[in-house]
C-alpha cells in the first residue's frame, strides 16, 4: 500500500518515470494488486504508450473484472484497439481532414 501511494503521488506530480517504477515495484511485490495494474494502465494511456496500457488494463480485468472501475478499463481497452485499427489503416499519402 505504501509503495502504491508513493506511485500515485509521483503520478499526480507528473513525475512519470518515478511513478512507473513504483507501480512496477508494487506489481512485483504483490502480483494480485489490481489497482496498481489499473493506475499504471491509466498512466501509460495518458503517455500514449498504448501497448503497455493495454497489457496493464487487461491484467487489471483478469484480477478484478467486476470492480467499480472495470467498465472504464474496458472502455479504455476499446479506445486503444480503435486507435490501433485507425493507425493500421492510415496511409502516409492519405488526405487527413
Explain what you see.
75% of the residues lie in helices and 0% in strands. With 97 residues, the protein is mainly alpha-helical. The radius of gyration is 15 Å and the shape is globular.
Radius of gyration: 15 Å
Biggest pleated sheet: none
DSSP summary: helix tally:
5
For the termini, the CA-CA separation is: 47 Å
Describe the secondary-structure layout.
Layout: H1 2-12, H2 16-29, H3 34-46, H4 50-64, H5 70-89
Features:
single chain, 97 residues, mainly alpha, 5 helices, 75% helix
Concise structural overview:
The protein is mainly α and 97 residues long. It is built from five helices and no strands. The relative contact order is 0.11.
Amino acid at each position: 500500500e505504501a509503495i502504491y501511494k508513493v506511485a500515485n503521488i509521483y503520478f499526480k506530480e507528473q513525475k512519470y518515470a518515478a511513478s512507473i517504477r513504483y507501480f512496477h515495484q508494487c506489481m512485483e511485490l504483490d502480483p494480485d494488486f489490481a489497482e496498481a495494474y489499473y493506475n499504471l494502465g491509466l498512466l501509460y494511456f495518458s503517455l500514449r504508450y498504448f501497448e503497455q496500457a493495454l497489457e496493464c488494463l487487461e491484467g487489471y480485468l483478469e484480477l478484478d473484472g467486476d470492480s467499480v472501475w472495470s467498465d472504464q478499463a474496458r472502455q479504455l481497452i476499446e479506445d486503444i484497439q480503435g486507435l490501433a485499427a485507425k493507425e493500421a489503416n492510415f496511409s502516409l499519402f492519405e488526405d487527413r481532414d
